[in-house]
UniProtKB/TrEMBL annotation:
The lineage of its organism: Bacteria, Bacillati, Bacillota, Bacilli, Bacillales. CDD domains: DPM1_like_bac. This is Glycosyltransferase family 2 protein. Belongs to the glycosyltransferase 2 family. GtrB subfamily. It is a multi-pass membrane protein. The chain crosses the membrane at residues 230-255, 267-288.
Length: 326
């Protein structure tokens, strides 16, 4: 039987590129000797994305679409895509053509050679601001240092996963998923292919600083406890410094008459320490917030509509969603 590939594409306000992306993906997929489905996930877009994707799915039986009831975020959108995928392998790709669809055949070859995960590693990034490139570089390296899980650097979510991998991924069911980290955590036979990341084909980034920060905090907090330990490390260092300073102060008090001049050092120490304590409290808060999210156990997303699925699949999806919610 011919194997089937599901291509998952998250969409948030992508009306400017959608048609172009669809054509390029279709071109690539038609040439492969495999069956395929294009699974678009509309993440609560506020522009015409949903109407466009709806029209495409009515005209092309390879296209399926699920639409969220609001914007749930990129990581949740790709998680939903893997929930609804039915292929022997799933490929996750951004809608803006920064991840070239022409890399898909190479991914598929590696998969056919027996690899379970084929991830695309960026050797170069084009058309992004200096800040974006620098912050991404710093983030991947910090995460790499902080965690024991081998999360490859400079690697986004553009990847192929075998069915056995994405079936396991679904079971993890995390509330603030950092998908690329979870896939690394799962293990299996993984391999990288290198590529140069293009500039966005049209439209603007849908990842403002706020979303970038959320993604990096999710990445670090779900894969490392090191920030929590910072308080104890810093505590040890600061008590050492404090002890030495105490000796100096005692010496001054006993043998000199300059103790009143200590006012400015008091203020400095006070500011430094209280700032530090607030930072640590905030860090602990991040972890507690995440524990709270897991305990509430709300479903990760709400689907408002689907297009292009067979009836039986939608019914079983509804059952599946209910099971997830319970
Ligand atoms: N995206 C999404 N929900 C969001 C933000 C982004 O589904 O809340 C999608 C977006 O449509 C694109 C992908 O995630 O397909 C990556 O976003 P973008 O290209 O804007 O991020 P960047 O490449 O600038 O980091
Ligand atoms: Mg992009």
């Amino acid at each position: 039987m011919t194997k089937k590939i599901s291509v998952v594409v998250p969409l948030y306000n992508e009306e400017a590129v959608l048609e172009h992306t669809y054509q390029r993906l279709k071109n690539v997929m038609e040439k492969l000797p495999l069956d395929y489905e294009l699974l678009f996930v509309n993440d609560g877009s506020k522009d015409k994305t949903l109407e466009l994707v709806q029209a495409i799915s009515f005209a092309d039986p390879h296209v399926k679409c699920i639409g969220f009831s609001r914007n749930f975020g990129h990581q949740v959108a790709i998680t939903a895509g893997t929930d609804y995928a039915s292929g022997d392998a799933v490929i996750i790709i951004d809608a803006d053509l920064q991840d070239p669809p022409e890399l898909i055949p190479e991914m598929v070859h590696k998969w056919q050679d027996g690899f379970d995960v084929v991830y695309a590693q960026r050797s170069k990034r084009d058309g992004e601001t200096f800040f974006k490139k620098w912050s991404a570089k710093m983030f991947y390296r910090t995460l790499h240092k902080l965690t024991d899980v081998e999360i490859p650097v400079d690697t986004g979510d553009f990847r192929l996963m075998d069915q056995k991998v994405y079936t396991e991924l679904k079971k993890l069911n995390e509330k603030n998923p950092f998908v690329r980290g979870l896939v690394s955590w799962l293990g299996f036979k993984q391999v990288a292919i290198e590529y140069e990341r293009d500039a966005r084909a049209a439209g603007e980034t849908k990842y403002p600083l706020k979303k970038m920060l959320k993604l990096s905090i999710d990445g670090i907090t779900s894969f490392s406890h090191q920030p929590l330990k910072l308080a104890s490390y810093a505590g040890v260092v600061l008590s050492g410094v404090g002890f030495i300073y105490m000796l100096i102060v005692l010496f001054q008090a006993l043998f000199t008459s300059t103790t009143v001049s200590g006012w400015s050092s008091m203020i400095v120490i006070q500011l430094l320490f209280s700032g530090f304590v607030l930072v640590i409290l905030g860090m602990i808060g991040e972890y507690i917030g995440r524990i709270y999210d897991e305990v509430k156990d709300r479903p990760l997303y709400v689907v408002a509509e689907h297009y292009g699925f067979e009836k039986s699949r939608v019914t079983s999806d509804a059952v599946f969603m209910n099971q997830k919610a319970n």
